[in-house]
Amino acid sequence: MHTKTLHEIRELINKGEVSCVELTKNTLDRISSVDDKIGAYLQIDEEGALNKAREVDEKIRRGEEVSFLAGIPMAIKDNICVEGLKTTCASKMLQNFVSPYDAHVTKLLKQNDAVILGKLNMDEFAMGSSSENSAFKKVRNPYDLERVPGGSSGGSAAAVAAGEAYYTLGSDTGGSIRQPASLCGVVGLKPTYGRISRYGLVAFASSLDQIGPFTKDVEDCAHVLKAIAGYDEMDSTSAKREVEDYTKYLNQDIKGLRIGIPKECFAEGLNEDVRREIENAIEVLRRLGAEIKEISLPMSKYALAVYYILASSEASSNLARFDGIRYGYRAKDFEDVVDLYVKSRSQGFGDEVKRRIMLGTYALSAGYYDAYYKKALKVRTLIINEYKRAFEDVDVILTPTSPTVAFKIGEKSNNPLEMYLSDIYTVPINIAGVPAISIPAGFVGGLPVGMQLVGNYFDEGTLIKVGHAFERETEFSKVRPSI
Amino acid sequence: MEFEAIIGLEVHAELSTKTKIYCGCTTEFGGEQNTHCCPVCMGLPGALPVLNKEVVTYAMKAGLALNCEINKETYMARKNYFYPDCPKNYQITQDETPLCKNGYIEITTEEGTKKIGIQRIHIEEDAGKALHREDGTYVDFNRSGVPLIEIVSKPDMRTAQEAKMYLENLKAILQYTEVSDCKMEEGSLRCDANVSVRPKGSTEFGVKTEIKNMNSFKAVEKAIEYEIKRQIEAINRGEKIVQETRRWDEAKGETVVMRSKEEAHDYRYFPEPDMVYLVVDDEWINNVKSTLPELPDKKRARYISEYGLPEYDASILTSSKALAAFFEDTVKEGASPKDASNWIMGEVLRTLNDREMSIEDIKVQPKHLSKLIELINNGTITGTIAKKVFKDMFETGDDPEKIVNEKGMVQISDENAIRDIVNKVLDENPQSVEDFKNGKTKAMGFVVGQVMKASKGKANPQLVNKLVEEELQKR
């Protein structure tokens, strides 16, 4: 059961072959049997999940129409608020913080009668690319327990890959959905900035953060996106645009569709085996009638530098509220209020979080602001313009999601710069604010390889169209880890 | 050496919007601690600010009334600092793009009308309030997120009096436009002053100090006066003025150092990434413009030209919106502008002052004041009685006609009745009669006074005068 996709499960429920309670119990069993090894969950709400499942079974029994997501178990990254559950951001700082309100996406999921199993592990405050920065436990890759699942939404990716939830939500600031999706062999979508409300997502870098779904395949992705997208008056950066029925992009052909291949993404730094897999994927799309064009995105080489300045600057301010005064971790002994701040924050935050707060504070400081923050904003505009220009000539841009397959736990944890490089293909997308999806597109040594499709602003539909066409032609999305 | 002072003011005014600047919580003053709050104004993880459009409208109204240009594209900015009453540890304000800029206020000095420039007006949020108790410090977030405008003047003022006049006019304009109720005691109007001195004739600025913690206009005036004197004396002693923030100590009547320039914060301003650019179009601006009421300057000019009031009276009557409204309503009810003005400038304001009340609190209705004036003019009561009636009206808010009837205060105009009183008074005061005969005309005034007293103020004064003279001549 746990290997099935969301749409397959929907069909089983609709046919009456499985009840939501059975399904939920089944998934809870699956979690108890594998999560000791995977470490995807930080919190499980068995009672809440079963109550919801029962409620949906009752609705179905009464013959009521239910939503596509109704009664199907899912889970949420632990930086998205669910009323009454802890929202820890995998940080000692928020270890005991219970959110008194629902994030907008949580509200939408509840309206859709989703069965929320619990909260998922991640890099602390979504800072990291391996999920090793969780203050509580590491997440392991279901394809190889010695390897990382990617990050920061490692728990969200691993949970879907290991069949511990039929779909999950994550957040993506510089690749935190797509990179772990790639490393765990699942589909992960970062929608256009503004497509999904950020209300209730604990902010890391407000101008880059975006919530998105993890699913086993593209078809599931279309269904989940449809449910969680849309304008929210509580988030002024959310877009006042109608939500499309993304499922209409399924089963479409892609003849004549123009796909751009940026040459910069196939240069130095890309693992040769990964390159081969991606090139094979490009051939599949060419065979399906897509027009493959080489393009150039020269500004993207600055994206990583821009990212670490902007994201850290915003983070330094966004994380200022965690001070031990109103909620969260408070140091035991302190002399005065400044001492309380210093000790609570020194003890409550992990190394990577502190590193980025310091970096961002520095970049915003008097005397450095113009050279760093302001300059980075200007380069951001150039990158945005570059993507806008690129989309005049092509419909979709295709790159590897990550330069390598999943690396070993501990391999990069002492070298932040090397760790940062694993987001080299995903970071520019957040800088530009365009949507991108990572789709299983090959294997190297039994480890998944993801292909990233990048779309024009609010053109998630085309990503689904191309992704689904690829998925129908290949078997990669049907592979499950042996755990 | 002769010095001149350079003064600039930064005024924070709380806007009178019903809800907070970035969330839907009420702005109502008071309330049980931490009950006017939500995840947004408490700075909970994941909560996001959304700009209240009313705040923009109110701030633009202030800007337009203060002759400012409106910045059509602005963005909000974060001002980062750690303080327990600041739930996010940053304040969402405006930095490089204030909503309004380049305005002015006119003040009337001895040398004539002077324009005090306004550099900028921006919108921002208020913080919570730290409460220090015996068992520790608590924070109340009811005020957190209440909308403020900060109005920064240009350094155009030269004396403490000019600063006070600027504040008075600013307050009147904010009240006229109903942008703010400007209650200093509730903290809805706060003022900091930047003060420096330089040799008269110099064009360079001296080193300035910033003065905080002034809780009334009077305190602003006193603090600036003190600071100017302090700086001049220091320079005369050969000392250098250092850039610093000083606190006004009301009890001691002096400014004391709060923090030096070195201790100043680096606020690390940057554009608020949780919000989009604020774009204001001409339609919005014109809508706000069309709602602007007649402002104090215009009103004052009209009172002078239309009603023929002296400039001083016109200035006082227009100094607050409520007072001007009281005056205009009294006139509307039939009183002549001169009578209405005399009564308001006299009895009304005097009584309010004595009781430390403001015109907003008065029970007397304009139509009743107008009627009182009519009762005097048609001879029903005397001016002396009118003052008594007014006292009653002030206490009870009653109709003057009712008071006059109930208390039998109608004027006595019957010649025989008055003549009887006059003769009785003369009989009782032979010395006065004697004095009068000896050419001491003053004695007549004394007799008139005694007659008025004997009639309990009800005798028609003209008749009393006439009859006293007649009867004295007879003796």
Describe the structure.
The complex is a heterodimer of chains A (483) and B (475). Chain A has 483 residues and is α/β, with parallel strands linked by helices. Chain A has helices at residues 6-15, 20-38, 46-61, 104-111, 154-161, 178-184, 218-228, 272-287, 303-318, 337-348, 351-364, 370-393, 416-421, 427-432, 460-473, and strands at 41-44, 73-77, 115-120, 167-172, 187-190, 210-215, 258-262, 291-295, 396-400, 436-444, 447-455. Helix content of chain A is 39%, strand content 13%. The radius of gyration of chain A is 21 Å and the shape is globular. The mean pLDDT of chain A is 97. The mean pLDDT of chain B is 93. Chain B has three domains: 3-287, no CATH class; 294-406, no CATH class; 415-474, Arc Repressor Mutant, subunit A (Orthogonal Bundle), CATH 1.10.10. Chain B is of the alpha+beta class and 475 residues long. Chain B is 40% helix and 21% strand. In chain B, helix 7 (321-332) crosses helix 9 (366-377), helix 9 (366-377) runs antiparallel to helix 10 (383-396) and helix 14 packs across helix 15.
Distance between the termini of chain A: 14 Å
Instruction: Count interface residues per chain for the largest interface.
Output: A-B, 45 and 28 residues
Q: How many independent structural domains of chain B?
A: 3
The number of helical elements of chain A comes to 15
Overall shape of chain B: elongated
Q: Uncertain spans of chain A, ≥5 residues at pLDDT below 50?
A: none
Proportion of residues in β-strands of chain B? 15-25%
> What is the CATH-assigned architecture of the domain at 6-255 and 462-478 in chain A?
Alpha-Beta Complex
Total count of strands of chain A: 11
**Radius of gyration based on Cα positions of chain B:** 29 Å
In round numbers, the mean pLDDT of chain A is: 97
Query: Over the alpha carbons, how many angstroms does the gyration radius of chain A reach?
Result: 21 Å
Q: Overall pLDDT of chain B, averaged?
A: 93
Oligomer: heterodimer
Say which CATH homologous superfamily of the domain at 6-255 and 462-478 in chain A is assigned: Amidase signature (AS) domain
Main sheet strand line-up of chain A:
1-3-2-4-6-5-10-11-9-7-8
Protein name (chain A): Glutamyl-tRNA(Gln) amidotransferase subunit A
Organism (chain A): Caloramator proteoclasticus DSM 10124
Domain Amidase (chain A): 22-463
Subunit structure (chain A): Heterotrimer of A, B and C subunits.
